[in-house]
Amino acid sequence: MNSRKTLLAGFTAFSAAALAAGVCVNAASASPLAFSQMQAQSIAQAGSVADSLGAGNGGVYLVRGKAVVTVTDAAAQEKAEAAGFATKLVKHSFAELTSVKEGLDSVKNVPQTSWGIDTRSNQVVVKIYDAASPTAAAKVRAAAAKYGDSVRVEQHSGKLSTYISDGDSITNGQYTCSLGFNVTRGGQPFMLTAGHCTNLGGTWRGGNVTGAQIVESDCPGADSGLLTRPNGTGPGAINTGQRITSVGTPTVGEQIRKMGQTTGGGSGEVTSVDESVNFDVGVLNHEFGTTAHTDHGDSGGPAYDGSAGLGTLSGGNTQTSYFYPLSREMSSYGLRLA
Fold first, then answer.
1. Percent helix, strand, coil in the chain (nearest 5)?
2. Catalytic residue (one of 92, 196, 286, 296)
């Protein structure tokens, strides 16, 4: 495959024997793969404990790859600590934050704003970008004020944009985006990218693939697009050689990797989950925000953590990049990893 083509697959994880033996991973000295596996294990185990806490669950976040379980009462704190996790006592449950976020979702026609859950601060964080009109900014601030200290409003520089521009990855002859993941449906091979790319229509090509047809395209709301892959499945791998074998759940504080045809590889940290982002093309729901640097032409490219795929790039600005969760794309289209 062309080195610019982003394909799917995954490195071998820690052996079950090593995990069973209680091998401890030092975050400061761990290899990238070992660190990713530590994060994945911590997220899965902490998530299971948090889910068992009911109203006492404030959510989970990571610190240097290790999970912190936030709790709203002493009983939940005792249970989480008994399971071996660091805890933080907070005011708002995760269910309450989700309800606040969904309440803000009723605010419409406010481009260049967003809101999502930051479990680390135990708040819904509202971002208003400089490009937002005074009317939109005032509308969002007024809505946020109704929820008291469960919401934090931040002013951000620049303008949010969905990343479509000339480049050399997958193109319909007019616009260029990046391929996210190779997937299958009903045993047939497909390519997953951003919906705001496939919304542009046309026949796509890139690397050794030509004549790729659009079979699914969802944007706004979601940001998913599915293309045929005429040349068959073949081995799937990020262009670094990294294999992806599972679908992960983005978690605040999680260290991730990304790939795109314009900016190439890079890293970042998840800063928010379940974010509603008001791009000029419309509202994209359930995005996760990151500190990864991306640019025009990277749209549709993958975010991943070791062998776990996390999402495909929607866009952002110079400080924040937003990705649509791979788990939602897989479920919506009935896909399997290639």
1. 20, 35, 40
2. 196
Domain boundaries, the chain: 31-89, 94-156
| pLDDT tens readout for residues 71-111 | 999 999 999 999 999 999 999 999 999 999 999 999 999 99
Would you say the pTM of this structure is higher than 0.90?
no
Angle, in degrees to the nearest 10, between helices 32-51 and 74-82: 140
The CATH architecture to which 94-156 belongs is 2-Layer Sandwich (3.30)
From the candidates 161, 169, 224, 299, which is the catalytic residue?
Answer: 299
Query: Is 299 labeled as catalytic in the residue annotation?
Result: yes
Q: Which residues pair with 189 in a beta bridge?
A: 184
Q: Among this protein's residues, is 92 annotated catalytic?
A: no
223 carries an active-site annotation = yes
Of 1-10, 139-148, 164-173, 239-248, where does the model show the most confidence?
139-148
Q: Which of 118, 218, 223, 274 is catalytic?
A: 223
